[in-house]
Fold these 4 entries.
Entry 1:
Amino acid sequence: MVYLTRIENFNAAHKLYNEAWSFEKNQAEFGKCANANWHGHNYKLEVTVKGKPDKATGYFINAAELSSIIKREITEVLDHKNLNIDIDWLKGVQPTSEMICISIWKQLSPHLEGKCQLHKLKLVETPNIYVEYYGE
Amino acid sequence: MVYLTRIENFNAAHKLYNEAWSFEKNQAEFGKCANANWHGHNYKLEVTVKGKPDKATGYFINAAELSSIIKREITEVLDHKNLNIDIDWLKGVQPTSEMICISIWKQLSPHLEGKCQLHKLKLVETPNIYVEYYGE
Amino acid sequence: MVYLTRIENFNAAHKLYNEAWSFEKNQAEFGKCANANWHGHNYKLEVTVKGKPDKATGYFINAAELSSIIKREITEVLDHKNLNIDIDWLKGVQPTSEMICISIWKQLSPHLEGKCQLHKLKLVETPNIYVEYYGE
Amino acid sequence: MVYLTRIENFNAAHKLYNEAWSFEKNQAEFGKCANANWHGHNYKLEVTVKGKPDKATGYFINAAELSSIIKREITEVLDHKNLNIDIDWLKGVQPTSEMICISIWKQLSPHLEGKCQLHKLKLVETPNIYVEYYGE
Amino acid sequence: MVYLTRIENFNAAHKLYNEAWSFEKNQAEFGKCANANWHGHNYKLEVTVKGKPDKATGYFINAAELSSIIKREITEVLDHKNLNIDIDWLKGVQPTSEMICISIWKQLSPHLEGKCQLHKLKLVETPNIYVEYYGE
Amino acid sequence: MVYLTRIENFNAAHKLYNEAWSFEKNQAEFGKCANANWHGHNYKLEVTVKGKPDKATGYFINAAELSSIIKREITEVLDHKNLNIDIDWLKGVQPTSEMICISIWKQLSPHLEGKCQLHKLKLVETPNIYVEYYGE
């Protein structure tokens, strides 16, 4: 079993805000992340898949094909968007890196079925913060 | 003459949009950067100052003092903000990295007077795009 | 279960030296790392915690709170210090990255109890050497 | 148990090409990676070993000794070479990062026996693609 | 005047070899870089242009347009190629980073005329070696 | 004229302390950098030289030869040392990055005479602080 990781990027706006709470409670919980007019990040997404390489090709999935799927299904969809407003499959989700990562897993994994097994997602929000998710 | 560079960071939302133009012209000129609901970046700001080191201290300005000034006047002001809306001194400025960099120069340089000479600003917008400005 | 990693930094001096050995044996075992007058590093500490995100906040611990704990208990304690001499909880410990990492685990984990589960520590000593520890 | 990782580098040429296939089939499968006159990469190899640190030294293997073994057995052998032609132990292997990584494991692991346990190899082919292998 | 830099990448094979010299003289001068069967690198190209930003757009050239020109004229031409053999405009050129950089300048600058002024090229060959060229 | 940069590294201990001042004045001026028992850094040194490439070799100095000179004269001398105590040519120098950079210029430039012209030194002290020096 070998693990292959492909990295793609997207730049997006978001804020952390719970509509069920008062403005003050949002400020207390989320601090500057609750800024009404949004802020944003250069997100880096690392997609790790696993499989047994074929002897004829030397791989179990072509990294270029994997890149095309990630870009088509995820990063080109999220790029230059507002993660609270613009994305159907993030509606009602608090857009922390933790929750975005879980939502990307649900969105991406069906498109890899029959090709390879999704092993891990890593979402880097700033040079000092990242999250990882293994699907459960 | 020695050049000292201090790096600070901020995360912000913006869009490129000219209110004097039609929606279609904005789309044609700015593409995805014109997304109505904003997008954002992890900005990295490199501030380069120059001077002649003092023998007693080994520097012409303490890097910790330089850091405090940059954070107080610039990066803590811009961090987790919307660059089109939230910042007084960016009002009416198209918030490209080029224009933000020129505006930061105007804002920062008076606070360094009498301490050291501002030589260059470098603003990194994405891992693949940055701008530099020397004050003229 | 999602894994959140927060990165903090500290700069410190150390040397590798076993007082129970002769100077010659120290030289033979540790080479230039045994230099009598110390050397030092920019250490990067990656703290990975795990948990189940709350729907209301989108996380199981606020990354800003995690950062505060790491800085207060670990990186501000170690920053600009001598790891052989200055730190109570490193007394009698050979300050390799391996042993520092194990000691940081003991020091940090009680402060995360009731908030989240400490999963992994990664300590980067140079761009080419790092260690990882999972608590056992 | 602590995990120690040492990073070494090599620069090499390769192409992906299956001699049992037609030129057209190679083009269709491997795209630009099949270019007849080769292309190349700056490869970064991360070698992770595990063990229980000795109290007297603070480690289970000296990182400098680990570095010497990796360089002597792997990276100095592969550096400035053609991975399809020049290396005995890569003969008949399709030189994807996946297969190179598996071959490095076979080549390196006997030289670590009695010193420490090889845990993982990570081979970074470009800033956006890497593979990992755990020996099975 | 503001300086804008756009970064693009290509992966290529090359060797340093002077056909007018004996094998031995090539070995003595170029060492492992003269390996008969080639080696290769992940090259990173930084293109810096300068101009005066337009108030309406906030830039003097759209970074996306600059990226398209660099990719079309340079990096997609060089990517996954052999720099000694495959490129018309590198024929007869010793493919050091120094000479490649000068050749890229000649090739790229006519395509920027009337749009902006080419200021500098930086070509990164390995994490530890890069060259810069200002056109004269 | 082309500019070639070669990067080398060293890890060292230092403190900022002026023996002519009281302990209190040192604390006030240098803060945690004055810690009596030292601290340290992973320093990165970038050496930029300039010249006109020879057509036969494609360079004006072989990057491997430049690397040998830098390592022999500077980085292997400073590596794993105490910059306040261990180095003859830093005696009496306040070991800030500014002053170390000026001292390295004096030490390195005679060894490049007749080979190439030293253009710039860049010394990176932490990921957020670096200095540059052009020899005057």
Entry 2:
Amino acid sequence: MTEKRTIGFIGLGVMGKPMARNLLEAGYTLVVHNRSRESVQELAQAGAQPAHSPAQVARESDLIITCLPDSPDVELVALGEQGLIEGVQHGDIYADMSTIAPTVAVEVAEALAEKGVQCLDAPISGGDVGAQEGTLSIMVGGDAVVFDAVKPILEVLGRTIVLCGPNGAGQTVKACNQVQVALNLIGMAEALVLGQKAGVDPTIVLDVLSGGFAQSRVMDVRGPNIIRGIFEPGFRSELHYKDLNIVRETARAYQASLPGAALAHELFGAMQAQGWGDLDHSAVTRVIELLSAAEARSH
Amino acid sequence: MTEKRTIGFIGLGVMGKPMARNLLEAGYTLVVHNRSRESVQELAQAGAQPAHSPAQVARESDLIITCLPDSPDVELVALGEQGLIEGVQHGDIYADMSTIAPTVAVEVAEALAEKGVQCLDAPISGGDVGAQEGTLSIMVGGDAVVFDAVKPILEVLGRTIVLCGPNGAGQTVKACNQVQVALNLIGMAEALVLGQKAGVDPTIVLDVLSGGFAQSRVMDVRGPNIIRGIFEPGFRSELHYKDLNIVRETARAYQASLPGAALAHELFGAMQAQGWGDLDHSAVTRVIELLSAAEARSH
């Protein structure tokens, strides 16, 4: 791409807003839309053009990026009334950076392909700090030629950008990631609770485990805070719960049987039932503590 | 310790034999015993004195080390007929390096304390290679003064040697370790199966996950082999299954409720039912594949 595209950006939340800012700062022309208008005005003051619907964003840009909460939001913005599909032109590119079901990513891509639009699913990980610093990991599904065309723009947003396969593959790898992270967290939670119940200093458990075969990145990053009872996000448990719901839908769709993911979904659901949706996902430790307290009371 | 102790060593298996060899090579006088006599003869040729019972080992040494398969073996060797308890003298030290239930470690320590023997539980991790190279991790429970006295000898066997607390604490930390490793493995298994079922190259799943927040040591070490279908141990699944049994006993004893450990126990049990006890514990991936194949057939 020798000349810079006009980029449409929809979804200016905790992740989307700093990402849009980074694109503006990199010199791209931006058309922005968001359900709540406050963020739109903020971005407009920073030089973006405000738009009043996804359709308008699509009409005024040739690369559209969305960063939305869940599958139904993406379906609505892309294919609903006043959605992208009503404003796109042949040759446009649509990159959805939300975390949604791979099956929905494929459906949206197929619907927009009929309008001559090429789609990428490009979910991210790395949290709000990664979004602010432009150091996200981006897992991409779609055509290699489209990927190559958009890559310079993704490089403004992230550091590790991997083409994982055709449409849906980016979302699939994100789902895989969320299973692994959830089970690493549950393993740590159970190890720490077992140690504590048996009277061992959790600092020692963490030191020994993180120095050996049991080490994980979540242990390195979250372990010390868990021991101090600090569960500030980080990554809010309600989002990981949503992602585990996607994991289970995806497992059903592709006939995978994932008992660990099913358990993780239940335990992360218990966090929501306790009103801990705004806590970091490592607060699953508190669910294990709760179960163990109930176990103790029953004796 | 200015003069070198005579060390008794019982249990010359995959782990114990190379450990005993390392002690001989470090210049210690060794009295050895093993159920199968072949290993005893091997060690005798290398300079160790053979003994015919744990009691005899205890009579002829002042530090006794055992490295046995499971809790009942340790109970028998320590407290049974012709056991250590029949040969120990006041002031002896007994270090059990087997992986057994923390509660049994405490029982054995209490029984031998009545004879004036001080005990350490000192389970190891690091596999047969760690045993051969003297690079094991050793998690120790017991008195700090006893720990300090024995530490130079443990340093012949391992690299990371941590006093975790009083008797039983070493076994507790080992149990915590085995929970964490099992759940990290199950997470990886489910991530890889989900990716594969949804049509994504497992190499890409592994690359993306290991480069980010989902990383774990087991992923770094075992992931590439899982993808190639290589399940040579490593760490035999039947041993990890045994350890998860200890985890569940320990959880019950200390009133911890560990749903992840319970699931891991079931899935590792399925490996045994399939005759995969001699495979590496990462073969839990094959259990997830099996469940998913059954899921696919039911559609």
Entry 3:
Amino acid sequence: MSEGKRIISMSHGSGGKLSHELITGLFLKKLNNPILAQLEDSAFIQIGDLPLVFTTDSYVVKPIFFPGGDIGKLAVYGTVNDISVMGARPLFISCGFIIEEGMDYTLLEKIVDSISAAAEKARVKIVTGDTKVVERGSGDGLFINTSGIGIIENGVHLGIGNIKVGDKIILSGTLGDHGIAVLSCREGFNFQSEIVSDSAPLWDMVSGMLKISRKIRFMRDPTRGGLGTLLNEVALGSSFCVMIEEAQLPVREDVRSLCEIIGIDPIYVANEGKLVAIVAPDDAEAVLKVMKGYPEGIEARLIGEITEEHKGKVCLATMVGGLRIIDMFVGDQLPRIC
Amino acid sequence: MSEGKRIISMSHGSGGKLSHELITGLFLKKLNNPILAQLEDSAFIQIGDLPLVFTTDSYVVKPIFFPGGDIGKLAVYGTVNDISVMGARPLFISCGFIIEEGMDYTLLEKIVDSISAAAEKARVKIVTGDTKVVERGSGDGLFINTSGIGIIENGVHLGIGNIKVGDKIILSGTLGDHGIAVLSCREGFNFQSEIVSDSAPLWDMVSGMLKISRKIRFMRDPTRGGLGTLLNEVALGSSFCVMIEEAQLPVREDVRSLCEIIGIDPIYVANEGKLVAIVAPDDAEAVLKVMKGYPEGIEARLIGEITEEHKGKVCLATMVGGLRIIDMFVGDQLPRIC
């Protein structure tokens, strides 16, 4: 660390190493409490006898419309998914808008239409909201915060602490579609095969998975920072080794090509309609089969397992027979994709 | 409305007439559901047997440090107060940061310290958070969203629908301190008597009020848009007349002077540690007495009552014996004060 003035950089918002340092070194340290310290996608909050979860996310995606979605759809599904991967049914959502002066009213109308449609599809109610306007040049079109509340039913308890050696790792579908769709649109890349965001609500599939198995240990959606970041969080949080097989990682051919051109590993690219489930070995096949029955899980597959070899590390068994450590990435590969 | 392209203006975020039109004409219309439609400071959400409230607010105050507070303190107390005025005990808060690239890390640390101290004072837990970074020039230092959950105890039910003719209107203290403190700081006005924000958590006082009376009909805090906007919401929502006496409106002398100089009526200026309570006439004196026992209510007083004369209107009995209609204001008198 230099002796000079420390400033916030784009990398602090990337989901990578600096984001992690900001969260643990500043927010966790100063706002210390055991619920926040769990660093799950949503906070467990017991109120009376009710096991609830509570989560928040701000959306600053640029541009606000992109192939397969827009900031409104993303804001609803993103928060719904953060609730769902806790094994909780999404119930209520809040919506806070920060609008830049001069925004076209008809675009805002389109976004609100999209929010409305997404809330209906995800069967959540938007019950409270807020609108702020900032001067031209003090914002960037539109930022949206959504917070959400869900309820855990049937005594489900998911968390990194449940993970055991031998557990199987399931990924619900292809990697990087969302991040590359936004990037392509923003940078004006032209590709014959149009890549669209995978933004989708996951509760229906999660609900089906929870019905078939009581041995799902943990779930999370690989959004900002992608699968690579998620698996590192699992390795760090569980203190086990996360061993995955490169040959099993599904990446669309056009996504892979574009990643190669721009020098990004798809393992770090954001997804908005995917999840990783870590499941006891005897239930893994059954869970996988259920997932394949949902549109969001058609391409689900086993990608690896929890081992003891390199504790706290993510190891990729490469297709040429080597073993590569997948670290948290440093830098800001793909800013503002959510 | 002109035939040209409609755009979002600063007035859409002012809390005045255009804000109201944006909320009812766009958000309520498209996201229509009965909970949102109540337009209270927090949404009532019944989960199982638990009567909860849920609220959200984004904070874009400029500058982020001002006399008597900062954006962090404001973000915690603002959301805590939106819960409290529903008669609900604040429990859990979320915190979403949108940071502009280049922000001084030590300033962010100070804000997080302030959030931590405010949460402790208000006895709420910050249980979930999110951080986004936007490029230099795409934000303005720091925006914070806080959402919050509270619980209603002892079957309290407050709401505009409870208001009856003859009810008394109590205001907890002086008008306009917060808005003028922020404005003075932003515009570099120098005054001998420094005006400081009234930002403060109100739950302790509210809790005391609820203990002494079961006949508090409604409470709300006069933030953006001030007392004038709040009373118009009451008049519109109840369809009665809100009659207040100018002589009873407490305004600090230095706040009044500055308002005169810049041509703003203090009745429209934001407060961040004040509330209005509408109480049945037989309990009004007792509630007032309790309020005066708290630091936040020392200057509480009766300012008027609910009548039938001019339905849906707010009337001010002036000190010279006239009657003036207080409308919702049009324009953006004081942008970015919260």
Entry 4:
Amino acid sequence: MLSVSGSSLTHLESRALRDGLNVSDGHPRMPLTPSQERIVAGIPDLFHEALRRPFDEVEEQAQRAFLHGIGQRRAPIGTGRLVSCYSSSTAMDMVARALAGRTSTVALIHPTFDNIPDLLRARGLRLVPVPEHELDGDHAPQLPEDVGAVFVTTPNNPTGWVLPAPAMARLAKSCARAGRVLAVDACFRAQDPRAQYDAYEILEASGVEWAVIEDSGKLWPTLELKAGFLAWGEGTDLPLLDAFNDVLLSVSPVVLLLIDRLAEDGGRGGYRDLHQLIAGNRALLRDLLAGGPMLVADPESRISVARVTWGPAGPDADTVYRELVGRGLHVLPCGPFHWARPAEGRRLIRVALGRDRAEVAAAGRVLAETARGWNL
Amino acid sequence: MLSVSGSSLTHLESRALRDGLNVSDGHPRMPLTPSQERIVAGIPDLFHEALRRPFDEVEEQAQRAFLHGIGQRRAPIGTGRLVSCYSSSTAMDMVARALAGRTSTVALIHPTFDNIPDLLRARGLRLVPVPEHELDGDHAPQLPEDVGAVFVTTPNNPTGWVLPAPAMARLAKSCARAGRVLAVDACFRAQDPRAQYDAYEILEASGVEWAVIEDSGKLWPTLELKAGFLAWGEGTDLPLLDAFNDVLLSVSPVVLLLIDRLAEDGGRGGYRDLHQLIAGNRALLRDLLAGGPMLVADPESRISVARVTWGPAGPDADTVYRELVGRGLHVLPCGPFHWARPAEGRRLIRVALGRDRAEVAAAGRVLAETARGWNL
């Protein structure tokens, strides 16, 4: 029998790369738009441009185009406190390593993608789950005294939940008072305008020690030609640059120039088109499931994945996952996102929306048909 | 004053990316050959090819072209025990993480590039230095009982030392008997035919638990469009796949196809040209320094860096490094390579040879002039 429990989400996603209809991983796999096609056709020119120009200049240009384009005008570009990494996970692990030198315990948003708790635990950190609603309530969350850092993903994967600006300010101030680091994973920021307030301005104003991870990897179907970005505050006492230097000298300036051009294109309508594609695919999935036992959760979510849920009389998510694989459809069961309490994910699967509309339609039809077979 | 001690080698290399003459990092920065130019011009076609084809097929093709081309015909392609990583350092850290779950102490080759001891230590591992001559002697090295793994870089950076096949077989058998893992970093393999015996055949035959890191990143001036590869044995009980899955779903298939084409080109004369460029630059450096107090060490080395040394009456390497930076020349002082006994590197600097001949000539002239100023 296809093994599910004990498998990481990425392991399940890698199966979906091999065959069948893949709405498993959250990587962008829709067709390139015509203007993106033109940018890809120009990669050899970007290569020669990168050969000619100093790396620092190329890097700052790309960081500025990308981060300013999504509202992050106070990101510390050009200060030495903003490094470009192979991916957001590479950046994430640098944060995990630096935090482990400072604290034993991290409060982590719950649920979230399982590689975050895995990377933190692999550095020896103990984790305390913090539900989303405790982060955006009227008060900063009450945390055990030994918590030395708070780690928040916003927009969160898989729920699409966003930490509003006032709640971030409240959380940052409370962390500053308690001497805790605030680490923010904003990898899905570009997909949701509600997350595009200037987080750096809020963090710097609060006096907290902070780190922020940004990502180009969720946006454009560039076949993993992407970068993650890791920034930290002037007063942040974490050896993040050492962790960076141990892993890389630099990302490819060709990839940085590609990000620069795609971010520019985003500002000229590319982001609007992306948001419409995702919203359209979410609505399509909702419509295809209408009338059956499955429904799309998180109606407010804007990110490129949708959770699908069903009532307690239905099978558990691992069973549904296996049944869907049998029909050639790859999704993710949501148990592993609920890293502290997997049972909370047992009536949820995740469907990727960063796909051609026809693929989401095909996936939706398989889901609807499967659910009809349950005879609930 | 320019700080040297306490800086990692990568930190010093990153300074060299900003200005002056950079023979600091070992990354390939020579001009593209005409056939490499044609491959780069075809990247948009590789992109569309990667869009059309299954990832696994592209990955296996690239791994086969690259690894078979450098003699590694028994590499475990297609078994699930050979993963493609963003870089060799990403692979290295996966090995460090997996080893930390199994042992407290690793015997590590001495000297070697400092990010290797740094990544191992960051995972909480204690290190025991093993000099090169103990690895290729008539007997396997005698190691303290608590050593749970041996980590060897071959060809080694910065010395160019190569572990011969019989010594690898002896070391592997001795590790097998003692229940130790043997980890091999073969990132510079493609530069030295003496390292192109089939390491996988030897490792599998010995019964040892093993991991091997390979790298495309030292060979072609593709501006960090590269991959590292991490392989392990069928009987190797290390959670390397978990460590991989926590960091990435996959590298870019565009980069894999680029490696495929460059490896093919390597077989058609590209490797011969690369070896000649490096050998020519090494000889040029030697000739430019002739008659002065500096000389090129490691005359047998074939890798794309050269150590330069001088007598005990000369200044120490950090002083020389600073003097050279003052003249606009970036090299590396060798202290940090000697991670257990930095003083052993105090009369050594490292000069990168993966450069245009004119750059190495300019660097050699600055070195010769600097050394003449010592009035020894």
